[in-house]
Amino acid sequence: MEKDGRPNWDSPMQFVLACVSYAVGLGNVWRFPYLCQLHGGGGFLIPYLIMLLLEGLPLFYMELAIGQKMRLGSIGAWTSISPYLGGLGLASVVTSLYLCLYYNVINAWSFWYLFHSFQSVLPWGVCPINSNRTGPTEECEVATPTQYFFYRETLNISSSIEEHGGIHTGQALCLVLAWAITYLFIVRGVKSTGKVVYFTATFPYLVLFIYLIRGVTLYGAINGLKYMFTPKMAELANPRAWINAATQIFFSLGLGFGSLIAFASYNQYNNNFQNQAIVVSLINSGTSIFASIVTFAIYGFKATLNYEDCLDRMRILLLNTFDLAEDAISMDSVLEWIEKLNTTYPEQFAQIADKVREGECNLEKELDTAVEGTGLAFIVYSEAIKNMPLPQLWSVLYFFMLLLLGIGSMLGNVTAIITPLRDLKIMSRMSNELFSGLVCVFCLLLGLGFTTTSGNYWFTIFNDYAATFSLLFIVLIEVIAVSYIYGIKRFEKDIEDMLGHRPNWYWKIMWAVTSPLLLIGLFIFYIISYIQGGTPTYQAWNKELGESVVTEYPVFGQVFIVLLLVSSVSCVPLTALYAFCRKRKERAYEKRPSPVSTVSV
Amino acid sequence: MIAYADFKIESLAYFSKKMPNHVRWVLQQIKSRIERLNALFRPVMHYNCSAHHEGTNMTEEASNISSDTAAYPWSKNEMFLFRAALAFAMRDYTNGEEFGVSDIHPCDETERVSFWFVVTRPNTTDLVDKGTVEMAIKKSRNRINGAFLLTDQTLEFDGIYPTLAAPVSPATPPWLIVFGVVMGAVSVGIIALLVYPLVQRKLKKNKDADDEDSDEETGVKTAEIGANDGIYNSMFSDDERFTQM
């Protein structure tokens, strides 16, 4: 314990691991490989690393410095910097609250899949049989078994956001478990969190390593790796690549939520956070690259498998139509045979010509299907896993890793809510454990809404809108506040006080010039794309077609999106206004002449 | 239906050399000469299935053997096994009618292991209707599959969909069991973490009480132990910290 009674990390290593565990999350696994694939494979690393230097590192350093100096959560820290800026901390807390509400639902899904891996036949590998016992259920036939398992059995999804339904009890149970585990890990504050992060930060790397070995030895993995590593330099000319790189670095490091400030506030005053900031940022980016190698190996495997399945279907079709001997056509010669039969029996071929064209087998096309987000993690990966030998083992390992990544990030998110609220002293009468418990129960009850049949659509709203725009705004105000309102000179002195040396010119230029400009650019870009994008749309699952269709949000959905954005962003001006009014009242009160009355004794 | 046999090309050519003008007439008279011709020319006795394909009375079955890896080693012996298995299926379904191998007639064989076949009643040439044959095959599907060491997916009877095995549903879904284990462990962990410091504090209080009793008279009385046992004299206390104006 320090003199002021604030708990501390047991060692600087715990702090570093906590930051790594928080920053390395699901986005590294499911967003970065998608961006890599979208923007030309290996070439995407160039804008990614440049953005890391220009905005990732400086902003990360800045948040750690603020937290360690002020030794308070985000609300207290920003109020100390300037009383008008308390709203920044409040906005961070509100955004973290939204994040907590929906992020643990992903952990609930990971639990669901993990528990379902303990079966002899993985349930997403085969379609369930319909009531007549003549074949698979129709929905499963038009879609794939993995999609069916995700959309029907895991989510029991309705066909649009307007259709409500009951709570999926299995999901609700898993959500309760996810919150129980989160509570277990934060109940003692940094004392318990500090011990847990040893495991949550390191075990995913072990699993990723195992998957790397398994992945590159899979049949066809080399196709995926070749696809990833052939850089398409032309993509670099596309401004979207740079914007996506900037956004990815920004969200991947978890800036603006207040978690980094909260974690750093538990540091010793003289902790050398400069080196730690560099180390954590590099580990985060390295993990993204590592995870995308694994993902591309798996992509290659899955694409090759699909391609060969497609060839086999063509082969059977040709054999059936032309009644050839079984071994006349082999897998390699399917395409030649299509040519041959087209020329020798044109009329007969014309009958099946449509089918051949539809099911045209193309390896590039299979590799091109870039997927991100929950679709990648729960559908594409599950499909790849079910084809591996000993799929139960791989499935357990994979979902356990997803769970650790998710819970590691949750620890940071919940700490970002609890630390500033505790520092506000309004809750100081309650014990730590009770307060943490109340926050967890509150988030659990609201999170149950995401387990209803339309819950996944609300989840998508939160995922796409709750934290994206507001974070940009928050961090932009943060960096401007530190550089210009607080002043770089004062900030420098504070850092010298803590570390013993001033930050060099690289940091100062980034804080004062580059990062604000970059953030303003990103901010303007987001506003333009919101305005230009028209009505926001979402992917609704259509069970007759067995695929997702693009649907527009209804009016109440759009209103909700606006509310989400406004509620966190407006904290900043509203709190500034409130502080301004209070200051004016105080000043008016001081200026009033105090009544002096003498009492003659 | 009148059953008649076609000849293979060689036998036709032989006949045409001898009786060029009576070829068709000979072929149509064949019904009574089946036995003799069998012995002479070993013709392939098969029904002209193509005439039946377009018609609506479909008494044939098509069967396919497809395999995804190697070609199934088909031979005349395998065909014999097929006919025997079908004969068994017919006997089993009709409870004893003595179907034999000769009552199963494959036709339209192709390069691929795929052919049509018809079934006739024993000792007659009356065809058995499609519905009965289908029911018989459905009943003994597993046995027929087993005879060829194939599965429903690799041995296909056109038009007969396999009845899939009923899904095995255990009393408790297995995932619930794992969930229960993990939830129990987490609950125990939470309770332990919450209760442990209370227990520690109680133990410490008991230990302090014991220590207090042992060294009562020694040492300076600090505020915790006994300094507040004196008498409170209000003369010397500050009533108000600030003088009122």
TrEMBL record, chain A:
Record key words, sorted: Glycoprotein, Membrane, Metal-binding, Sodium, Symport, Transmembrane, Transmembrane helix, Transport
Gene Ontology molecular functions: L-proline transmembrane transporter activity; metal ion binding; proline:sodium symporter activity
Topological type in the membrane: Multi-pass membrane protein
Residues annotated as binding Na(+): 23-24, 28, 252, 284, 405, 409
InterPro entries: Na/ntran_symport, Neutral_aa_SLC6, SNS_sf
Leader peptide range in chain numbering: none
Subcellular location(s) per record: Membrane
Pfam families assigned: SNF
Segments passing through the bilayer: 12-32, 44-62, 83-105, 165-186, 198-222, 242-266, 278-299, 396-422, 434-459, 465-488, 509-531, 555-581
GO biological process, one term: glycine transport
Principal location class: membrane
One Gene Ontology cellular component annotation held by this UniProt entry: apical plasma membrane
Family to which this protein belongs: Belongs to the sodium:neurotransmitter symporter (SNF) (TC 2.A.22) family.
Protein name: Transporter
Organism: Oreochromis aureus
GN (gene name): SLC6A20
From TrEMBL, chain B:
Membrane topology: Single-pass type I membrane protein
Entry keyword Transmembrane: yes
Pfam annotation, one family: Collectrin
Domain of life: Eukaryota
Compartment list: Cell membrane
Keywords attached to this entry: Cell membrane, Glycoprotein, Membrane, Phosphoprotein, Signal, Transmembrane, Transmembrane helix
UniProt key word Transmembrane: yes
One of the record's GO cellular component terms: plasma membrane
InterPro entries: Collectrin, Collectrin_dom
Domain Collectrin-like span(s) in chain numbering: 54-245
GO BP terms in the entry: positive regulation of amino acid transport
Residue segments, region Disordered: 206-225
Sequence intervals crossing the membrane: 175-199
Protein name, UniProt field: Collectrin-like domain-containing protein
